[in-house]
Design goal:
The complex is a heterodimer of chains A (about 375) and B (about 250). Helix content of chain A is about 0%, strand content about 40%. Chain A has one helix spanning about 85-90, and strands at about 25, 30-35, 45, 50, 70-75, 80, 90-100, 100, 105, 110-115, 120-125, 135-140, 145, 160-165, 170-175, 185-190, 195-200, 205-210, 215, 230, 235-240, 245-250, 255, 270, 275-280, 290-295, 300-305, 315-320, 325-330, 335-340, 345-350, 365-375. The radius of gyration of chain A is 28 Å and the shape is elongated. Chain B has about 250 residues and is of the alpha+beta class. Among the domains of chain B are: about 65-100, no CATH class; about 140-200, no CATH class. In chain B, strands 2-3-1-4 form a four-stranded antiparallel beta sheet. Chain B has a two-stranded antiparallel ribbon with strand order 5-6. Classes of the chains: A mainly beta (about 375), B alpha+beta (about 250).
């Protein structure tokens, strides 16, 4: 039953009977109160609970929008928890191919790949130590980590060389890996952990990108091979080496068999995207002209075949928002050849403007991404 | 299908050609092949593109700077390497990469490839510097400069007097200025050519890959193999490799 506000039931109290009530009943049916509404102990109760207004809301399309945000409380204050998707959490604008090798020489060299212009720049020797067959990751401060930099080709080491992608200068070394490894690849859990896989140990080292600490996590029984190819998505990592293919759940840090895993033996690498899919080589042997496949990053299932523009292997890949990038590879010799993947058309083409420069060739290097984290995004 | 091999700058994107296959890359230059029948792509190559032999492209560039006595080639290329070296590699350990000896023929082919790239890079760099001498002048000024030089060299007066008056200076002062600028320009051109020639000769006279590696690192910022760097004291006793500074240093 609808309530009625009856003027004859409004009573004067402290103001006295001579005070004229400042309340207007408007033609549109609304009521305007000229003063505070003082109810009981200065609290407006709704269903017996104190009423408070929502934290400020920001419309969609404006900086810090609260559209889609979740209302939470810290016990005293309410706030909007902005939920940013994996795809939109990290706006990548540059990539840094780092280290890698040619013939039997490994490099300390780093290049910058600017995604907006598809152009490269040689930044020189930014790493403390060189490495071949290597992999890297970045933290939220845009410090780039290259893992197990042994200072030689085919060397086993546990040093972690770093550089700042903000200042593009050497940032020294970080906490050593627990396990010395050669020929590594990583499953990268966005801004939280890099699971460093590679020979010498079935159990990956989990490198904490928030505080530079290292913990060894349980292996799969088949995750200790030489020269794996790894990928990652929002909820899991992906691993392939020899005949061993696994998916690795971030939440539980548990492995599951990857049914129908791609054909790479691990020497031919992977482009992971932020769009729920990744591109995998389908043959091994350090180089192949066999068409790649696009895989669902969550399930590993085969989505489609993606032709190659020529034989490539040991690719130096990194990802962008709409394109993936190659800045060096092996095709009978280690070289600097560049190329790109179009994430809309799912095509892979060579592109000379993406050639790495400096050393005479850059195969199996680390590829590390630089960009801006969306407000509220801290990783997955 | 037979192929032709070319060297081009990276800013010419030959990768758009349907038969493009990359071979290797040094600094801003790429070596690649196009199929002989891909006439449109070949015709579209820029005028400065340099055609090279298959030997230089495949067996020279692919082993760029390699100082090892045994190198590795892809198993799929073993037949080509046997043919090139005129040796049988049937007994070599098989795997995805096969170890083969660095033959004298291969060594010399690598030398040729490295010298050719040096020549191309040096000539292109100095040509760019030469063109930059005129960069600040607009076309009208360039044409008038020709008139002024003619007047001074031939003692004519097509423009000297009129320009001197327009500038509020004397004809003699203007002639002196033209002579000074011409001498400076000529000297600059001469210096560029002499320096380029000396540099090319330095590369050309190399008889070992080690020597070329040293020049490439010192002049062009292309790092030499780590083993050679260690031999030449470019790695500290603590194992720290001396920085290789990017860019041309000539």
């Amino acid at each position: 039953m609808a309530s009625e506000l009856r003027v004859d039931q409004l009573k004067y109290t402290a103001a006295g009977s001579s005070t004229v009530p400042n309340i207007s009943l408007n033609n549109d049916g609304s009521v305007t109160f000229g003063g505070d509404i003082d109810i009981g102990n200065n609290e407006l109760l709704v269903n017996g609970q104190p009423f408070s207004t929502l934290p400020p809301q920001v419309p969609l399309g404006q900086d810090g929008t609260t559209a889609g945000a979740v209302l939470k409380s810290d016990g005293v204050n309410a706030y909007w928890e902005i939920v940013v998707s994996f795809a939109e959490g990290f706006a990548i604008t540059r990539g840094y191919p780092a280290a890698g090798y040619q013939s039997s020489s490994s490099w300390r060299n780093v290049n910058r790949c600017t995604h907006s212009t598809f152009s490269m720049a040689n930044l020189g020797d930014l790493l403390t130590s060189s490495d071949a067959y290597t992999a890297g990751a970045q933290n939220s401060s845009m410090r780039a980590y290259v893992f197990c930099t042994a200072g030689s080709w085919n060397g086993t080491g546990n040093q972690v060389s770093t550089f700042s992608m903000v200042t593009e200068t050497n940032a020294g070394t970080a906490t050593n890996m627990s396990t010395s490894r050669n020929r590594t690849s990583i499953m990268k859990r966005d801004f939280k952990y890099a699971y460093v896989c590679g020979n010498n140990n079935d159990s990956p080292d989990r490198y904490d990108l928030t505080n530079d600490t290292v913990t060894t996590v349980g292996g799969s029984g088949g995750s200790g091979g030489d020269n794996p190819a790894c990928g990652y998505g929002e909820d899991n990592g992906m691993y392939k080496q020899g005949g061993n293919g696994y998916l690795f759940a971030w939440a539980t840090q548990s492995w599951s068999a990857w049914s129908g895993a791609p054909g790479t033996d691990g020497t031919n690498k992977t482009v992971s995207t932020r769009k729920g899919f990744s591109y995998w080589n389908e043959a091994g042997g350090y180089q192949t002209g066999t068409a790649m496949t696009r895989r669902d990053s969550a399930t590993g299932s085969n989505l489609q075949s993606v032709g190659k523009p020529g034989a490539t292997g040991e690719e130096t890949f990194h990802t962008g928002m709409d394109y993936g990038f190659m800045n060096g590879m092996y095709n009978g010799a280690q070289n600097n050849t560049g190329g790109s993947f179009n994430y809309s058309t799912h095509s892979f083409t060579f592109n000379s403007s993406l050639n790495s420069t400096g050393p005479g060739g850059r195969a199996s290097a680390a590829g590390i991404e630089y960009g801006t984290l969306a407000t509220g995004y801290t990783g997955v | 299908m037979s192929k032709r091999y070319f060297i081009c700058k990276n800013d010419y994107d030959a990768a758009t050609s349907r038969t493009f296959e990359p071979v290797g890359n040094v600094l801003d230059w790429s070596c690649f092949s196009l199929h002989v029948e891909d006439k449109n792509s070949i015709a579209a190559l820029p005028g400065y593109a340099v055609e090279v032999t298959r030997e230089v492209a495949v067996f020279g560039l692919r082993s760029w700077g390699d100082i090892r006595s045994t190198i590795k080639v892809s198993a799929s290329d073993v037949g080509d390497n046997e043919e090139f070296d005129n040796l049988s590699y049937a007994d070599m350990t098989q795997g995805p990469k096969v170890a083969v000896p660095m033959t004298e023929k291969r060594y010399n082919t690598i030398l040729r490839a490295m010298k050719l790239f040096a020549k191309i890079i040096i000539e292109d760099t100095f040509n760019t510097r030469f063109e930059a001498l005129d960069d600040s002048a607009v076309n009208l000024e360039k044409k008038v400069w020709e008139f002024l030089k003619d007047d001074v060299e031939n003692e004519t007066d097509f423009i000297l007097s009129e320009l001197a008056e327009a500038k509020g200076t004397s004809v003699e002062s203007l002639k002196t200025l033209v002579s000074q600028k011409k001498n400076f320009y000529d000297k600059s051109v001469k210096d560029l050519y002499v320096k380029a020639s000396a540099l090319k000769t330095e590369f050309y006279n190399c008889t070992t890959i080690r020597q070329l590696n040293r020049l490439y690192e010192d002049y062009m910022g292309v790092p030499m193999p780590l083993t050679q760097a260690e031999e030449e004291g470019r790695v500290s006793p603590e194992g720290l490799r001396q920085d290789v500074v990017p860019g041309l240093k000539f």
